[in-house]
Amino acid sequence: MAFVITSPCMSEKSGECVDVCPVDCIEEGEDQFYINPNTCIDCGMCVMQCPVAAIVEEFDLTPADEEYLKKAEQFFENR
Q1: CA of 4: how far to CAs of 35, 44, in Å?
Q2: Three-state DSSP class for 67?
Q3: In this predicted structure, what is the pLDDT of residue 2?
Q4: Beta-strand runs (E) in 1-79
Q5: Distance, CA of 49 to CA of 20 (rounded, Å)
Q6: 4 touches 19 (CB < 8 A)
Q7: Is it the case that residue 24 has pLDDT exceeding 70?
């Protein structure tokens, strides 16, 4: 399971999550930050630092937020 950054990041995009990630799996995209689902170690450090509660565990995604996991997978496929 990986963590996923959802819609609140799009309006905030503050980036505190990047600084605390021990495996550097969070990158800034054009409209939000993304967590690489292949390298995330599920430590939860990013969740505690997000000021807008945009980061959720993959299995807690609502149907409406599942698109953000797909966006992250696509973002890292093109790297």
Answers
A1: 6, 11
A2: helix
A3: 87
A4: 3-5, 26-28, 33-35, 55-57
A5: 8
A6: no
A7: yes
